[in-house]
Structures are given as C-alpha cells and as structure tokens.
C-alpha cells in the first residue's frame, strides 16, 4: 500500500444539506435593467410584457429589454410619486396599477398614465378584476369597486345601510381571492366572504387566527381556502365545503411546522400565496423563502437561496408573487425578480459533496457510476464520494495530510461498477477498488495494473474492464472472471496504439474495439478481420475533429460518434462516411466532453458553453445553458453516464447535471411575436401608437434604409427564439435567424408586405404569422406622373419648334421680293436648310423613341431628352449664322448620331476621323447632320447589313461617305437637298461641293471654310 505524506481514510456520513436542485430560478436585477431591486408589485399587460413595481417606479420587461417609468413632478401623465402595490389586467386588456396614493391606467401607445380621480388618493393594496366590468379594490377605506366602462368608483362603507355591514365594510382590506361569485377578504378585523351578486359581507370565525393579522388569501383548484399571516407566522388551509363559515376552526389545518421556528419568529410574514397552472399552492415569505405545497404528502418543500447553486433563488425575502399567462411564477423581493416554470423540471443538480464546496475545487464533477443499491459514486478532484438519493447522505474517501491514505491519489478521473458490484476507481496514481461485500477500499498494485495516471474505466461486452491511462501502454485490461490482466503492448494487433495514451474505450455492436487516445487520435480494431485503423487530425482525409478523445458512443444506424477537444465526429466504418460538427456548424463551442445517445437516436453532448442536443436527422441543434437550469455552462474533459432508470448524468464544473432525455420534446407552442421598434438610418423612428399594433408604415424616399426590431416573448430563455421574416416585393426567400432585427437598405420606392413570426423549434414553422404593410415613397423624378409631365413638355417643345418653323417659312416667303437674285437664292437655300434641319420625321421618330424609353428604360429617357434639347438649342442658337466652327458642328452631329443609335441600336455605325488642326475651320450649320440624315433616309439599316457612315477630313474637305444599300421607296425625299447644298457652298466658298457614288459607296465632299490645312 502506498503511503502518502500524511493521509488517512477520511469517511464522512452526514445528512445532505444540498439536495438536488429541482427548479431553475431566473433572475432580474439592476444589472439586467431594473431601476432598482426592491420589488413590491408584479403584473402583465395585454401583449404579455411583464411589469414590476419597485421603490423607484415601474419597469416594463419584454424578455430582452427593460423600459422605465418614474414620477415627473408637474406631469400628470406620469405615475404618482408613491409605491405601486398591485396590478391587474381587465377583460378588455386595460392595465390598472394601484399605488399608495390612488389608481392609474396605463395608456398603450402613448406610454403615459391616466389617474382615476374617482378613486381619490386612497391606498390600494390589491386589485381583482371580476367579470367584464368590475375591478374590486382592497383599500385602507375597505372594499371598493370600479366600473371600468364608466370609471365610477364605489366604496361599500359609503353605501351600506345595515349598521353591522357598514361597520364590517369600514375595516381595511389587505388581500382578496375569488371563488365563483364569492370574494374572500383578508382584512384588519379578520377573514370575510363577500357575495358579488347580493353585495353582502359575512365574517368567518377562525379561532386559530385570534390576535393574528392575515395578509394573504388564496383559493386552490381543490376548493381550499389558504390564509397567511403578517408579523407572527401562521399558514392555514380551510376546505370550502359544508358550512365552512361556522366550522372553519374545526376544519382549519395549520402548517406552522414548516417554517423556520415553531416559536413563530416576529416579522416572518406570509407575503403572497399563488396557485400555479396545475392548481398547486406556492407561498412567499419574508424569511423562509418560497414554499411549495406537496399535496401527496400534505407537506411543504422549501426553496431557499444557496450560493453554491446558481439556479436557486437570489434571496429568501419575497414580497409579491404572480403567475403569468404561460404559467411562469414571478417572485419579487429585496434582491430583484426571480421567475421559474413549475411545470418544467428538466435539469436537476447534484453536488459531489455536502459541504466545503469552495475548498479544494470540490464543486468540480468528473466521472460517476451507480451501485446496486441506487447510490451514486462520484469521482472528483478531491477523492470519491457516495451519495444516497433516498436519504441524502454522503460518504467520502479522500486523503488528508498526516493521515493514512484512502486512495492512490485525490485526483480521481474515472469510476466504474463491475458485474460483481465492486466499484473500481481510476486515480492520478493508480487503481483503487471498493469491495461492496467487505465494505473495504483496496489498492491495486503493479502485479495487476501499473500504478500510473489513469483517465477512465470502461467495460466490454464480455465483462472485461479496460483501464485508460496516460502513461506506458495507455490501455490495460482486467478480467474479473479469471483474475487476469495485461496491456495492449503484448497484443498482436492492438500494440500499434501503445504509447498514445488512453482516454476512453468502447466495444461497438459488431465487436469492434474503439480506442480514444490522449492526443494521438482515434483507433479501431476489428477482431473479425484482424485489422486496425487510426484516425487523426491533419491534412489527410478522412480525419476526426480532434486528437484528444473524451467519449465514444454508437447510434442506432451504426455510426460511431466521438467527442474531442475540437468538436465531435461521426464515423460510419462500413460506408466509409464521416460527419463533423464544430462551432461553425452548429455546436456552441468546439471543446466537447460528455456524449450520450438517447433511445430516439438524438445526440446529447456537453460543451464548454452548455449542453447541445442534435436531433436524429443530424440537422437541428438545441442548446441549453444556465437559463435552462444548468448549474454551469462548462462541461469539460469528462464522459457522461447513463443511470439505471435511463437518466443521463453529465459532470460539470459546478456539480452533476441529471436529466431524462425522453422528457424533452420540441416546443411547438406558438410565441407571441411583436414589432417592438422601428429605426431609420440607425435612429429610432417615431410611430403613432404602440409598435405592437402597427398595421402599416410609410417612409419617405430618403428613409429607405430601415431596421425592424422584433420581440418574441419567451422569458425562460430568449436565446432559444428563432425568427423568420420576409419583405414581400423585396426579399426572394424567408430569412431564418436568431437575430431579432431585420435590416433593409436602399429599398426602392413601392408597396411591400413585411411578414414575420417566431418559434423555439427551428424545425417547425407552422406558427401564426404577422403582417405589416410598408410603403416607401418613390423619388419624384421616377414617378409616373413626372415622366408623363416630361413627355408632355417634350411634345410642347417640339410643337413650339414646329410653329417656329412655320413662322420662319413665312419670313422666307417675304424675302422673294428682294431685288438681288443671289440674295434670293441664298435665302431659298437657307430656308431649305432649315427645312431639312427640322425634318418632321425626325421629330416624330424622336418622340416615338422617347415614349418607348419612358416605358421600357426610364433611366435612359432623361438622357435622350437632354440630347434632343441640345439639338434644338444648337439650331436656335445658330439659325441666323452663315457658318459655325467645325468643332461645334461635330459636337452637334455626335449628339444627333447618339439619338439615332437609340432608334437603331444594331445596324447603324458612324466612324469619325477628324484631324485636330481642322477643328477651327468653319462649315455651314447642320451640314453634317443633313448628310447623315440623308444616308439614313435613303439606305436600308439592318443588323445583318449594317449602314456604316464614315466622316473624315482630307485636304481642305470634310468627307461624308456611306455604303450603298438603297431603299426601294423614300417617302419624304424631294431630291433637292444636295442641289441646295451645292448652291449654298457656291455662295460660301470658292471650292465646290462634290457628291457621287463609286464602288458601292456614296460620298459627299464638303469644303472647309477659312484658312487651309496642310496635309
């Protein structure tokens, strides 16, 4: 036996003070947005948002964000400057809030409050809606009621006629509960029952409450009246059967024994009594935390704050309690808000030890096993402990300085029960075995197994134990039947894995051995084929996700799944197929540990960021974290365990997590999903009314970049919510995401429909859908009316030019009376030139092209119109000039050519080669345009036989030539155009204008005026 420096068997048998944590309490504090942590009232509005009343005012919570409301002096639309004591939602969805100084109604949409003047400044401790119109009030003036439709308030003390009734109605009322047509009142002078039909009040005589002030009252689903006291603890249950008003004293059952002191500690109050969705009673106290009534044993279970359990309540003082529409129980106290789901107890927590959890890392859980008596055996960083779920007792084995050794080493990595019932323990220094028959801890020496560092113990189908060690062979076996053992270095085939270090061993359904190593990858040995195989990470394929293997499991299809330090990998050795999941493909983290597969073939894997369930299709991932009841989110380096009853138990850094995987079903219940905020260009966009009720939105053209924020109410874990949205008319497909904001940028003007919905089950989207109509106004120059206006203006312009032509024609006719023939001929030529410039076909063809562009290609219509305007601006500018610069004429002609190429996008080409030294020469206005127009007029234009016009300078001429492919009929030709050009240039230049056809081309040579250019 190895002797430590000073260690002894340290055995502790004690009654557990840390039972399994049953419910997970979520918490809201100032850090989560509360305006302060001193809670006094809880409510829920018609949208499902939670409201909290505290010393600082009111907070509204949507599961993600908190909104504050405080008193503003002089602002009558703000809340009163006193404490909120109660909240109630009436049948029409109106939210009423009772204060120490009166009653107010919350105004949806305006985020303001309306004070009910008829209620005065009365202190109202409790609100209770009954029917469609009545809101009963427990006040310091006694019982009151308000008609929510008319706003009229009545205090029964003021209307009662009977002296005894009047006296009873004068007593202050603290709380109320309804049961049919009756209200049960806890009041200053005792317990009363009020008939809402006859409006009569009767007192219930309860001797046990003599001298005790009752502060809380409730009726459970079994028809029991529950009463809680104030100042001196008292909790009673009275069955509402028979003549209970006379027999209440005999029927009352007291539960004082479940409180912290039978002497009834002063100021230990029952502050609230609530029923859950199953009718079970919950009691909130000032000292004893939260009490849960267990009807099967007629007893209470206590839920108090435990620093070592993150899922326990944040404190033991609870002033108010509320059950929301989804069944969650909300608790308000001096530590903020706590809330939990009493119907969901999926995860429970078991600690490795009963005490000293914050010393020697005793929270850290490692491996575990279960003995034949149902006791759990825990392998920990501080030895071994045995826990009895039945009695709650713990027994410890660990080493302490100065005492004999209890184990080879306190660092215990693995633990396993063999088929004989003995417990085998793998430590950092060797193997221990606890003989259940002799109740003795044994040390296994080198003659059986090497005394090295061990990670774990597994068992094959023949009952042989496999020990996975860090050193030497790495894997060792022991056969309990023959009491023989050995290492893999002596095995003919397995020796190839020797020295890699052992982490985990598994034999699959086909008898193959799977060996997970401590950094050397995954090995497989097939005894039937006598072959081995090793998978590692690296450049080769196939590979596994990581070389350090934690656990190995086989699914129903024969795939072997491996958890590693870098993700999980599935291997189908028969099909040679592989699948790997990491943080990039669905896992919350790459580092994985415990891995188990349930009977529905779903994979459960512990990671350093929670537990993830991968469905049987291996496509959907559900992740659980601290908000779901886990004591910690970190599961690191240790395998999981399947209990005898089928539960999975995973070790974490803060205890063991136990759960029944078959209790988990995908939640297909619909979520209330709302539009909670609109932002434009990252600034909050003001909307009229409550965003949740918006049916349509209208944005200006410059507001076409916007964000729509969605809120789905899932208070237990908002991180599990999936959103789906689509902007019809903009999005082609639905977007599925866990991001709650829908961003849209540069949305074109138009009408759209925004569709959105939410679920916690991303595999099931058959849930209600919401719609929002969105209009983005169009920029004015892209609107139909503006384009129509442009066409009309162009038409008016062309008509004006046409009218101008007629006027010019009349002026030309007047010139016939001039005496000199040359001037007369010049005028005729100028007149004919203008006539050619303003060819009607060009005008109407241009209008036709413009109309076509407006309909088909509106983005080009403006450019076309600009070109047309430049043409007529040039004509008007130069109509009195005899000549213009060649550079100006070329620029004008290029504009004209572009317009014609809009008409003839294929089959019409113009090539220009103008020497720069010719640009300062002159030419008659619109000469080149007329020649290009003549080429178009007299020749066919076709994509297969294009018309090509070449314009170039040579000698002192500018030459316009085109290939000849003449039309059979030219409708508007009068055969006089070239003759007039001849006459005009005979007048302007000494060099003649020449024209003619040759070798399939038609060429016109136009003399350049002014100066000569050298070749």
UniProtKB/TrEMBL annotation:
The keyword Coiled coil does not apply. Keywords: Membrane, Transmembrane, Transmembrane helix. Residues 715-776 form the Two component regulator three Y domain. SUPFAM superfamilies: Calcium-dependent phosphotriesterase. Residues 831-906 form the Signal transduction histidine kinase internal region domain. The keyword Transmembrane applies. It holds the Pfam family Y_Y_Y. The chain crosses the membrane at residues 784-802. This is Two component regulator with propeller domain. It comes from Ravibacter arvi.
